[in-house]
């Protein structure tokens, strides 16, 4: 049986956003979801030039991957996020502030590492998110 304990030790201080500092996991299986970009099932870009639309598609793709494996948002134990523009950090935080209470109804959010990179696999992509889940 999977046991996930997500916490924020006082010694590390309060997280800077919609994430937690630590995820301690006991699981029989892990699910590693490749970095998702803003494409539909045919590989067409969704939201060219629109960070919010791309962000929504990326998280929709992660949800599809989770469901395909018989999992859901409560199984996610870590995210790694790649943004092309540092100016999009505020938009990313706003998206998570708005959407994460719906995705993680218990109010406990998995750890997230946020990196700013020169570019992603295609120039038009503005965000990529990788996820790890425990089953």
Give structural attributes.
135 residues; alpha+beta; globular; two-stranded antiparallel ribbon; 60s Ribosomal Protein L30, Chain: A; 4-stranded mixed beta sheet
Architecture blueprint of SSEs:
Layout: E1 3-7, E2 22-26, E3 30-36, H1 51-68, E4 76-83, H2 89-103, E5 112-116, E6 127-134
Parallel strand pairs: 4-5
Antiparallel strand pairs: 1-2, 3-6, 4-6
Give the overall average pLDDT.
Answer: 96
User: In CATH terms, what is the architecture?
Assistant: 2-Layer Sandwich
Name the CATH homologous superfamily: RutC-like
Strand line-up across the major sheet: 3-6-4-5
Number of helices: 2
Total DSSP E strands: 6
Number of domains: 1
Overall form: globular
Structural class: alpha+beta
Straight-line distance between termini: 8 Å
Helix content: 10-25%
Compressed to H and E, one letter per element, the order equals EEEHEHEE
The name CATH uses for the topology is 60s Ribosomal Protein L30, Chain: A
What is the CATH level 1 assignment? Alpha Beta
Describe this structure in words.
By secondary structure, this protein is of the alpha+beta class. The chain has a single domain (3-134), classed as RutC-like (60s Ribosomal Protein L30, Chain: A, 2-Layer Sandwich), CATH 3.30.1330.40. Helices cover 24% and strands 28% of the residues. It has two helices and six strands. The strands form two sheets. Strands 3-6-4-5 form a four-stranded mixed beta sheet. It has a two-stranded antiparallel sheet with strand order 1-2. The chain is globular.
């Amino acid at each position: 049986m999977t046991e996930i304990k997500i916490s924020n030790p006082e010694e590390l201080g309060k997280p800077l956003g919609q994430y937690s500092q630590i995820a301690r996991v006991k699981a029989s299986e892990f699910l590693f979801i490749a970095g998702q970009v803003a494409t539909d099932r045919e590989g067409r870009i969704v939201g060219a030039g629109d960070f919010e639309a791309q962000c929504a598609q990326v998280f929709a793709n992660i949800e599809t991957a989770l469901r395909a494996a018989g999992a859901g948002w409560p199984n996610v134990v870590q995210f790694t996020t790649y943004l092309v523009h540092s100016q999009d950090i505020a938009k990313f935080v706003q998206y998570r502030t708005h959407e994460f209470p719906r995705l993680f109804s218990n109010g406990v959010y998995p750890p997230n590492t946020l990196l700013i990179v020169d570019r992603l696999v295609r120039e038009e992509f503005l965000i990529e998110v990788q996820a790890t889940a425990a089953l």
